[in-house]
Design goal:
This protein is α/β, with parallel strands linked by helices. 61% of the residues lie in helices and 6% in strands. Strands 2, 3, 6, 7 and 8 form a five-stranded mixed β-sheet that branches. Strands 9, 10, 13, 14 and 15 form a five-stranded mixed β-sheet that branches. About 1% of the residues have low confidence.
């Protein structure tokens, strides 16, 4: 194609690429180069024809031209040396991130192409030299770290260019990225140590080391990988601060660890280095960032779990004191590679993978899909765990190295190993290409044919069909190998749980239980005795031999489910209670052989003692709940059964939080409607009555145990009619608050009615309209944003809703209205009762639920949002135009977090307050919410409340100005 052709030959007219190409033609024509512009454009178009994304090339090429100091010099070089043009076009068409690096630092292109940096791999000596040069240029820690960020950006450009141009294979690329990370982590240690040491008169003389895990430990980092690390120091002791205060080595090295993590992960104008993940450390977020070598060994010896053995396979010293790192890894080898196992590692790995596939959207994930990267890693790691105790040679960190060693010792045949090797190289190459494009941590294969075709070209394949067919072939092959290699060997002998309980010491039992995530040894022993024998530790045997044998066969799968649950201790205790309540436990054990039922029951037992107690009376209620069966019977039974069904569906992930609160609201609606019908008595025809909801009942956000905020409006022409409607409302309230042998119905709050608690229950429509016009306060106007007709006379209901709509949104807001709302909110804060446990009040505390409600209601009134009146809060937030997307997301996420916490406080802890608990209850609550520890939940809630508080002040200040 000639250069004189129109850009439309490449790009649709009016597309950004079309306009960019026209601009680029103008730059070339006016640059005053030594060559003909036509000749240059011909050479460029030749490269575009071979590019996976011509539009991306032109856009980024233009940006580079516009950012360079001398476009004519660069164009002359590109024309004179075609390899330079090819290099620039490939970078511009393969990676937006690398193109951005060139736009930001145009001089890097000359550095990249005018020396031999692209032809030689960067080894440790090279990186150390460059890092020391950067560190020597600056004195302040912030400047030194910014220098390292610039160096990182330059080196990732160099490695990426070598990758794109075929100067390095997959192993070479991952090795360079990993060695660069090792050296930068070591540099961050140096910077942090030098800064911290200025604050101490005497610093520890013991060594400190960083151990890499995951892809970093295996020297297999991607372009956008997190780095998983453990931090360790050798010995305990004390040191002295500048002010003469003695502190422990643990305190010192945790300060150092915090600085290191901050330096590596913090972002500045120069970007950031790495996302640092320290959650694989003992006790995860609840444990210290670093601990001594002896403390690590004690933890793994007494509490280490199977997943931690698997994780430590890739442990490799990467920075700090190398000898300490080697000693750490060496000392853990007996834990990682024991000669025998109390629990089959292959079974557990297969279950872990099954859970990943069931809980994740893995269809397009090259990492998590069936037959993907994780399958290969799990095959290799299962064989390493199982045989590493007898074959030290297979204890390799990297997947490819491990495949080779497994083949050499005969644990994989050469053909299977080759299939896995080729699939792994393909997967990681594709992973690199999709991550390189935007420097994002993604593992998703694109979905459109155009995107797949582009990925195919960037991966060395001719077209989309070839890529798709090759990928499908490898995933089938890997999955077949996964199913075959990880089939549980029949000749392995594993100690049963009951045998261990009978003849194991407390130490052995504690170690065994800890593998299943159980923390309370005494409670676990009692629960296991109930499950396996039908007895406590002191009472006589109750289960017959056949039922005991059934449990023995069931126990491994059952305990794997318990270990995988949100709260293993709670799951075990509740399961024992459910089993102990059965007249024929053997029937329940036979049901528990079904994987689906087992998973459902354990999931419920791990979250809610209340629901578990109800299931103990009737295990079949789980199926009825999932099938959506309707509750029948008395009002109390309808409510209890309906809420039980809703709770089961939500715990099992069948409904979202919003769907749960909607279901609970619908149950209350139905109960109110039935109460209204049953309340009709003498005089019922003398007038009309309508029942309205306010508060969370009005906005369809009821939670378990919520009160019903109600008020009644009637329309009648006589005082006798008024009295009849009053009695009917009293009967309705009586029906809704009844207490029977089946339990309590609802707490009803009617204090929000006009004139408050001393007024009659019902108010005449006309009187209500006058009240709103002349005497209603601002807080009533605000609360009416949640008014919703529930049942009764529909014509009257529509009239009242119209009156309220006009009252809330029809008239101008009074002067100083926003200041009055803020004052009301502060007054509510002052009424918070101090909690004995000193926890955070997520409802009334600053930045809590009420802040969000007040803020949203104020914005609704100001913007006159009729269309979202009495809608759920998250739905309402989405309709408020004056909020930007960041504010909407922050408010919605905070509100959802608070309501989720509230849900589990009621379901799991059976508490109806709004103050975060303490101790073990807080940890249990955190795991239900999806966090690893109570401190992580407290931090998340505290941060959320601060964000909401600041947003409340900022927005209300804007509204008052």
């Amino acid at each position: 194609m000639g250069a004189s052709s129109s850009p439309s030959a490449f790009f649709p007219v009016h597309s950004p690429a079309f306009k960019n190409y026209q601009t680029l033609q103008g730059i070339v024509a006016n640059a005053g180069c030594r060559f003909s512009p036509v000749e240059f454009l011909q050479a460029l178009e030749h490269q575009l024809q071979r590019s996976p994304d011509p539009a991306m090339v032109v856009t980024n090429f233009l940006r580079v031209m516009e950012s360079t100091a001398s476009a004519s010099t660069l164009l002359n070089d590109l024309f004179q040396y075609p390899v330079l043009l090819e290099t620039l076009v490939k970078i511009c068409g393969y990676s937006q991130y690398l193109s951005d690096v060139l736009v930001r630092d145009p001089q890097l292109f000359r550095w990249l192409t005018a020396s031999d940096v692209m032809t030689k791999p960067g080894n440790r000596a090279y990186f150390v030299t460059e890092i020391n040069r950067v560190l020597g240029m600056f004195q302040r820690a912030e400047r030194r770290m910014d220098g390292l960020r610039r160096l990182y950006r330059r080196e990732i450009l160099r490695i990426g260019a070598r990758d794109i141009l075929g100067e390095a294979d997959l192993a070479g690329v991952t090795s360079e990225i990993s060695v660069l990370a090792d050296c930068l982590v070591h540099a961050a240690i140096q910077v942090a140590e030098q800064e911290l040491q200025t604050q101490f008169r005497k610093v520890p003389s013991t060594q400190f080391s960083v151990v890499g895990l995951g892809k970093l430990g295996g020297s297999e980092l991607n372009y956008s990988s997190d780095i998983d690390i453990l931090l360790v120091y050798r010995d305990e002791g004390t040191c002295i601060t500048e002010r003469g205060k003695k502190i422990t080595h643990n305190e010192y090295f945790n300060r150092l660890a915090e600085k290191i993590v901050q330096y590596l992960s913090a972002g500045t104008a120069e970007g950031h280095l790495y996302r640092v993940d320290t959650r694989l450390r003992p006790e995860s977020g609840a444990g210290p960032l670093t601990r001594s070598l002896a403390s690590y060994l004690l933890y793994y010896e007494t509490r280490g779990e199977l997943w931690e053995r698997q994780m430590l396979i890739k442990a490799r010293p990467i920075a700090g004191d190398e000898q300490l790192g080697r000693d750490f890894v060496r000392a853990l080898q007996p834990f990682v590679y024991p000669r025998t196992f109390l629990r089959n590692p292959i079974e557990s790995i297969v279950r872990i993978k099954a859970r990943i596939e069931s809980k994740s959207d893995t269809a397009n994930s090259i990492k998590l899909r069936q037959g993907g990267i994780r399958d290969i890693e799990f095959i290799v790691q299962a064989l390493q765990l199982l045989h590493g105790g007898k074959h030290p040679a297979i204890r390799a960190n990297g997947t490819i190295d491990a495949l080779e060693q497994l083949t050499l010792v005969g644990l994989l045949n050469a053909r299977d190993a080759d299939d896995l090797h080729r699939a792994y190289v393909l997967y990681r190459t594709l992973e690199h290409r999709v991550q390189m494009e935007l420097n994002t941590q993604t593992h998703a294969i694109p979905e459109t044919k155009e995107e797949i075709a582009s990925l195919a070209l960037r991966s060395g394949m001719p077209d989309a069909n070839t890529l798709t067919e090759t990928l499908e072939k490898h995933t089938r092959c890997v999955r077949e190998l996964f199913d075959r290699v990880l089939a549980t060997p029949s000749d392995l002998q594993f100690v049963t749980l009951l045998d261990m309980m009978e003849r194991g010491s407390d130490k052995e039992l504690n170690a065994l239980f800890s593998q299943y995530g159980l923390e309370n040894l005494a409670d676990a022993k009692r629960a296991l005795a109930l499950l396996g024998r039908g007895k406590s530790l002191t009472t006589s045997e109750q289960l017959d031999a056949r039922t005991q044998d059934t449990f023995r066969e069931l126990a491994p799968a059952l305990f794997d489910e318990i270990a995988a649950s949100r709260n293993p201790d709670l799951a075990l205790a509740n399961l024992a209670s459910v089993v102990h309540s059965q007249r024929r436990p053997e029937l329940l054990y036979h049901r528990l052989r079904e994987p689906l039922f087992r998973n459902l029951l354990i999931s419920i037992c791990a979250v809610s003692p209340l629901v578990a107690r109800r299931i103990a009376l009737d295990p079949e209620v789980i199926e009825r709940a999932i099938q959506g069966k309707q509750a029948t019977g008395s009002l109390v039974r309808r409510k209890n059964t309906g809420e039980l069904f809703a709770g089961i569906r939500n715990i099992l992930g069948k409904t979202t939080l919003e769907q749960l609160t909607d279901e609970l609201t619908e149950i209350a609606n139905e109960i109110c409607s039935l109460a209204y019908l049953r309340s009709a008595g003498k005089g019922a025809q003398r007038g009309s009555l309508a029942m309205f909801a306010l508060g969370k009942f009005g906005s369809r956000e009821l939670m378990f145990g919520s009160d019903l905020d109600l008020f009644f409006v009637c329309e009648t022409e006589s005082s006798t009619g008024q009295a009849a409607m009053e009695k009917r409302a009293e009967r309705i309230v009586g029906l809704l608050t009844q207490v029977s042998e089946e339990g309590t119905l609802y707490k009803v709050d009617v204090r929000l009615r006009p004139e408050g608690r001393n007024a009659p229950l019902t108010v005449q429509r006309k009187e209500f309209e006058k009240y709103l016009l002349h005497r209603a306060s601002l807080w009533e106007r605000q609360s009416m944003t949640r008014l919703r007709f529930v049942c009764g006379n529909e014509t009257l209901g529509a009239k009242v809703e119209k009156i309220v709509d006009d009252f809330v949104f029809g008239s101008a807001l009074p002067s100083g209205w926003i200041q009055e709302i803020v004052a009301m909110r502060k007054q509510m804060e002052s009424r918070i009762r101090p909690s004995k446990r000193g926890g955070v009040d997520i409802k009334l505390g600053k930045g809590g639920v009420v802040d969000i409600e007040f803020l949203v209601q104020a914005l609704m009134m100001r913007q006159k949002l009729h269309n979202v009146k009495a809608r759920p809060m998250v739905e309402t937030i989405a309709h408020i135009d004056s909020l930007n997307e960041v504010q909407r997301r922050a408010l919605s996420e905070s509100y959802s977090l608070y309501r989720t916490v509230e849900k589990f406080m009621r379901l799991t802890l059976e508490e109806h307050g709004h103050t975060l608990p303490s101790g073990n209850s807080l940890n249990v609550l955190a795991r239900c919410v999806g966090m690893k520890s109570g401190s992580e939940l407290t931090d998340a809630v505290t941060a959320s409340m601060k964000r909401v508080k600041d947003m409340f002040s900022e927005i209300t200040n804007e509204m008052s100005s």
